[in-house]
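Task: sequence design from structure.
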């Protein structure tokens, strides 16, 4: 009721009014900044997609053209590669090419030897040496008649008898043997023995300096020469190398030491009547440009059971001149060693060993007629 009117009023409740809506007076160009979600417009993304596609096409085209421009040079490298340098094989050379060939019609063999070397005849063989060097070892080839095998022949040499040779082994030549020996004065030698029929060829490398072993090059040269050795006619029976029958010869006989040999009849003989102990000068034989001296070496204790080579080397060691050992040979079944003395007389000294006693005969040949050396020595023999 209303107190002023005393009228009763009716109360009709009204719903509350909604809050006021703030309507912006201007539109925000960035709806997202205003916190409103605006769905993407497909039309607005289309130019971007087109731009990216065009950019990809241009990039692909660029890369393709660059690869195409480089392709010819790569193909050229593939189709025409630079030649590869392969190692050139070194041709195998013959170390004996250009060497001289030596043929021995008497003993029916041949071999090759260096151009700078010379060959000298010795009794029953040859020597091959370097004339410009007094120290270079020389090679000696001697031929001896023997019924023994090469093995038995080697074991019967003075060096092997005195246990001064190495173990006998197979040699370089077919059916040959090889051994190294060092004599008591320490001169080394390497021997190859090979037999043809009843002949034994002893091909020996001989040192000229005591106590000096062979070098690899010296052994190599020896084996190269040895490899060229061959028989030229195995059906020919050898004849003696030299025989002093072309001119009158006289026989010299010595009754004190029981030996003899022949010498040219035009030589003058001068005998020494005085007999000496140990070293006994016996005789001189004087010819035109040639001379022979004979000496007996007997009863010297250090020479007992020694070889002719040992005595020859020792007797010439103090000559005051350089010497060259030529080699060993056999004359009428007697052991002979030869040494040359490089003095004005051009001496060749041969030492012949008595087979049973401590006796050595030294024969010195000097002068310019050395073609007589082997002829004279080939006639030597002990009569008892």
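Answer:
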């Amino acid at each position: 009721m209303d107190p002023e009117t005393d009228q009763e009023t009716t109360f009709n409740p009204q719903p509350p009014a909604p809050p006021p809506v703030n309507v912006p007076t201007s539109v925000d160009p960035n709806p997202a900044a205003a916190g409103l979600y605006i769905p993407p417009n497909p039309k607005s993304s289309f130019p971007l997609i087109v731009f990216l596609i065009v950019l990809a096409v241009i990039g692909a085209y660029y890369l393709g053209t660059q690869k195409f421009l480089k392709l010819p040079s790569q193909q050229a490298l593939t189709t025409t590669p630079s030649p590869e340098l392969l190692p050139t094989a070194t041709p195998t050379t013959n170390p004996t090419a250009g060497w001289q060939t030596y043929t021995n019609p008497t003993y029916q063999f041949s071999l090759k030897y260096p151009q700078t070397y010379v060959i000298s005849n010795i009794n029953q063989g040859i020597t091959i040496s370097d004339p410009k060097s007094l120290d270079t070892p020389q090679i000696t080839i001697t031929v001896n008649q023997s019924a023994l095998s090469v093995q038995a022949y080697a074991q019967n040499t003075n060096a092997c008898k005195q246990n001064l040779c190495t173990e006998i082994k197979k040699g370089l030549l077919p059916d040959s043997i090889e051994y190294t020996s060092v004599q008591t004065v320490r001169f080394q030698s390497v021997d190859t023995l090979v037999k043809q029929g009843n002949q034994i060829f002893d091909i020996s490398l001989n040192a000229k300096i005591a106590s000096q072993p062979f070098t690899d090059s010296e052994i190599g040269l020896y084996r190269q020469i040895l490899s060229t050795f061959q028989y030229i006619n195995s059906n020919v029976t050898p004849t003696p190398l030299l025989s002093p029958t072309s001119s009158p010869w006289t026989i010299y006989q010595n009754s004190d030491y029981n030996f003899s040999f022949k010498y040219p009849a035009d030589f003058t003989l001068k005998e020494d009547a005085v007999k000496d102990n140990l070293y006994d000068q016996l005789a001189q034989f004087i010819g035109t440009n040639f001379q022979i001296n004979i000496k007996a070496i007997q009863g010297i204790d250090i020479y007992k059971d020694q070889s002719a080579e040992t005595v020859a080397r020792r007797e010439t060691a103090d000559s005051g001149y350089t010497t060259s050992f030529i080699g060993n040979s056999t004359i009428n079944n007697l052991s002979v060693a030869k040494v040359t003395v490089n003095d004005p007389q051009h001496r060749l000294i041969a030492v012949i060993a008595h087979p049973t006693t401590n006796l050595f005969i030294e024969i010195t040949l000097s002068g310019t007629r050395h073609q007589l050396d082997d002829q004279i020595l080939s006639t030597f023999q002990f009569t008892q």
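Residues 1-6, 71-77, 236-246 have pLDDT under 50 and may be disordered.
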